[in-house]
Amino acid sequence: MIRVVVVDDHPVVRDGLRGMLGTQDDFEVVGEAASGTEALTVIAAVRPDVAVTDLRLPAPAGAELVRLIRSRAPGTRVLVLTTHDTDADVLPTIEAGAIGYLLKDAPREELFRAVRAAARDETVLSPSVAARLVQRVRTPVPVSALSGREREVLSLVARGRTNREVGAALHISEATVKTHLQHVYAKLEVPDRASAVSEAHRRGLI
After folding, report:
1. Which residues are within 8 A (CB) of 47 and not within 5 positions of it... i.e. 6 or more apart?
2. How sure is the predictor about 148, in pLDDT bands with cuts at 50, 70 and 90?
3. Fold exhibited by the domain 2-137
């Protein structure tokens, strides 16, 4: 029996997923949650095999929630089920440890296969997400895509410096630091500083 927790902030979606998964003899929905905080509590209590979760939730959400689930409940595989498939959503989430990434327009049989694959610790991606990952591998952002100042800012952020500390070290204002970081996020197509540092290390930019 594959024990599943459903995480989505829309009650209708949770009801629908619980109903669909309940049609399969080898699935048991053992909990549900409407926010990241609730998801962590439920997962810690019931220790499911698979957590099927949306990305956009009351915080923590997205890649941060995936990281927290994987660190606090390493036996639980995270299967993302969402409407969002941009690079800023997909890449940080996969890097954070999600075992699968499906879009909500996937047929129910595809969802069933994905849950079973996740329980076996096998990666499963929707075709559009797989294509996006392949494209990213083939066309990495070159070092020259980041300016010298942007690399300096990101290098200091990678050392754990706050925006104020980065500004003091580089003799620029905190607002300028924030502007440089926004440019970095856009160029690397990531949502936050942690993802930017991870992606920059992966590509050898810092």
Report:
1. 3, 73, 75, 76
2. confident
3. Rossmann fold (3.40.50)
